[in-house]
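A reminder from the course coordinator: this example appears on the midterm review sheet, so study it carefully.

Given structure:
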């Protein structure tokens, strides 16, 4: 947030999707009136007021990760200010018009440590490979890509873990890969957003009924029998809830109170219960049919779920925001917690802390994939920009 020079308004970037930097540029005045000044940016970061308070300066892009500097007046008149061939973010402006700007290179990539291999394999594509999902046999990954050529709505992709070429399935952010690896669940961030099942091989996309939902959040799971989808969404005027939807048809219906959310491998091996995040960020167990939640001994505040072990008795969890994430197993029968693996990227230079959608693994624990973000930046004082 940035306060205007006269103190009467606050400018802010409105990100309407958890874990995504797309959104709008807006201001709110002392009476609580919010005005959107600039709409529908695929990525936006960085904000400042011009010294005279007549413009809001921001850095954003319609596709890819190369943000350009733009300015918009309080009545919505927008103009480009500066574009350079690297990622740029405006941080602040001095009263004499000098701008504090960061410049750097950013790359989101995918690494995989596969069964029988001692070195990680890089499975990235271009410079913006997103959250990754691996098939149960470890032979295929599904991921999204938001590099500049793929436009406002991203690209849903698959790739064999042997390093075969990437296959672009269509538009959308990837939420889940079906247990038989024949379908990829995506959400296309149109207005309103739309859930779409994309075939991995031959076939036609399948649009799923939206019901009363107006938003979806990242993190969805497919039942092991392939008949149901479980995901996080919200209706107008309501908070996030966990929803179940039949693949064969029908509207989604909620099974949790507000404030709960799912993960990409939330569902138990017997398809009867879920591990979800409660409003206080603790992990709890919930029946798929809905009902009373129970706490999980051995988990800690802030734990996030990676998935269920194939024996159905243990889960894999980790702490986000670490440079070397530690993945633990938690025994659901006795609460025993053990360190299972620590992620050790071969090249730590420029690595950012891992976030809430960083890893996926096969239920036998023999194949793991994760998303990394490498950022190397420099700080500048820019003069003469108008």
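Designed residues:
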């Amino acid at each position: 947030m940035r306060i205007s020079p006269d103190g009467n308004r606050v400018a802010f970037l409105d990100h309407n999707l958890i874990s995504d930097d797309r959104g709008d540029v807006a201001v709110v005045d002392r009476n609580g009136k919010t005005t959107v000044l600039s709409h529908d940016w695929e990525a936006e970061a960085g904000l400042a007021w011009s010294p005279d308070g007549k413009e809001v300066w921001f850095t954003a892009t319609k596709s890819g990760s190369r943000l350009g500097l733009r300015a918009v007046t309080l009545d919505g008149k927008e103009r480009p200010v500066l574009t350079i061939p690297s990622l740029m973010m405006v941080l602040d402006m001095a009263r004499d018009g000098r701008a504090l700007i960061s410049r750097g290179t950013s790359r989101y990539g995918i690494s995989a440590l596969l069964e029988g291999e001692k070195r990680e394999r890089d499975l990235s594509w271009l410079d913006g490979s997103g959250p990754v999902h691996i098939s149960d046999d470890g032979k295929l990954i599904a991921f999204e890509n938001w590099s500049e050529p793929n436009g406002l709505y991203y690209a849903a992709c698959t790739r064999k873990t042997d390093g075969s070429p990437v296959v672009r399935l269509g538009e959308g952010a990837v939420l889940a890969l079906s247990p038989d690896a024949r379908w990829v669940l995506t959400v296309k961030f149109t207005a309103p957003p739309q859930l779409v099942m994309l075939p991995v091989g031959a076939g036609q996309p399948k649009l799923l009924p939206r019901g009363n939902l107006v938003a979806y959040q990242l993190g969805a799971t497919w039942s092991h029998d392939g008949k149901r989808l479980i995901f996080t969404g919200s209706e107008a005027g309501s908070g996030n809830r966990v929803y179940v939807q039949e693949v064969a048809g029908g509207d989604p219906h909620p099974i949790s109170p507000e404030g709960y959310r799912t993960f990409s491998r939330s569902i138990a091996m017997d398809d009867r219960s879920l591990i979800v995040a409660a409003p206080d960020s603790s992990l709890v167990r919930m029946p798929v049919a809905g009902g009373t939640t129970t706490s999980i001994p051995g988990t800690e505040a802030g734990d996030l779920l990676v998935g269920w072990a194939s024996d159905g008795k243990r889960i894999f969890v980790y702490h986000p925001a670490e440079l070397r994430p530690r993945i633990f197993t938690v025994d659901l029968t006795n609460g025993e917690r053990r360190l299972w693996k620590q992620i050790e990227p071969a090249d730590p230079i420029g690595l950012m802390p891992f976030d809430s959608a960083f890893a996926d693994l096969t239920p036998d624990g023999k194949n793991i994939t994760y998303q990394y973000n490498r950022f190397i930046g420099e700080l500048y004082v820019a003069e003469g920009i108008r």
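Residues 159 and 165 are 6 Å apart (CA to CA). The two ends are 22 Å apart (CA to CA).
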